[in-house]
Amino acid sequence: MNSLMQRFTFVCLILLFFSGCSIFQSTQIVVSETPLSPTVFVNKTPEFYTATATLEPTLTLVATLPLEIRKQNLIELFSTNGGCDLPCWWGISLGDSLQKVAELAPVIGKPLRPDGALYYYTLSLDNLNLADFDINYYVDENMIVQEMEINLVEPSRFKDFHIAFNEQLSLSGLLRRYGKPSEVLLLAEPLGGLNTPREYALFVIYDTQGFGVVYTGLVHAENPIQICSITVEDYHLKRIFLYLQEPRKKIEQLNRFYLHDLKPLESVALMSLDDFYEHFSLPDNSKCIETFAEKWK
Q1: In whole angstroms, how far apart are CA 84 and each of 78, 81, 88, 168?
Q2: Contact 201/216 with Cβ under 8 angstroms?
């Protein structure tokens, strides 16, 4: 009998040891033993789960959300931006604490992940589990947010989100909400080869508000180069980047990334800043930005 009890105790200790290791190696703990009632919020301040996220180390408590509830929460956030205007994003502003950032995790159903001074959320907006949307927060030694960057990939794929995207992220929505920008910069990349579309980048800068938005995609036509429907429904639009602090500091970084430098719209296109604002602030705009290949050799 003593031998049997000793063997049983030994097996229990082994199981406890390995289960303990698996917890501390994971970067995400899913709270599932005690069912939680998912929170859906519509036009009100969200009621967060009781699960909490630690600032350090990397362990994050996140409640598992049903896909449809998570989708509704994300659509609400994209529509209302958490009740604030840019450069605030989803209720988070520069100067907020990382703890406030972590409170988004139960609402979006994803953990806040660390990478040095960078903390980030990466979200899939459909069932393919791809990295469709990123929010990056750069913090100082006091865990205070100093910079934020947002990245949305191929918005045309997410039809259920289009109405919400048009509220905060589309070019027409941006211009209607924030008015004429301080400056618009444009670049057109060289042709990549036969039957390969030319890529463009359009950087819309708001100096007074302190943010900028970059729209990148494929041009619609050559000779002249035409950039027409910059809408979230159009497959030509490939990415939307938001830089929510001192946008002009990003120009040099973008110029290093592309083969050509960004140039003021008026210097390379047959369109003034006033005309750009007038036409592209309309959701049904049919006007194109036209530029010429010889300006991008």
Answers
A1: 11, 6, 6, 11
A2: yes
Picking from 202, 261, 185, the residue whose alpha carbon sits closest to that of residue 237 is 202
Nearest to 288 by CA among 297, 296, 275, 147: 275
Q: Output DSSP code: residue 101.
A: H
Question: What is the DSSP code (8-state) at residue 248?
Answer: T
Strand partners of residue 147 = 138
Rounded distance, CA 229 to CA 161, Å?
Answer: 18
**Distance between CA 162 and CA 78 in Å, rounded?**
10
Q: Which helix (H) or strand (E) holds 183?
A: strand 183-188
Model confidence pLDDT, tens digit, residues 147-175: 999 999 999 999 999 999 998 899 999 99
Instruction: For tokens 């913090």, name the residue.
Output: 139
Distance CA 262, CA 254 (A): 8
Length of the chain as a residue count: 297
**How far, in Å, CA of 209 to CA of 159, rounded?**
30
pTM over 0.85: no
- Give phi and psi for 221, each to the nearest 5: -160, 160
Percent of the chain with pLDDT over 90: 66
Domain boundaries, the chain: 25-153, 170-296
- Rounded to whole angstroms, the Cα distance separating 46 from 30 reads 20
Between the alpha carbon of residue 11 and those of residues 16, 32, 101, 251, the distances in Å are 9, 26, 42, 61
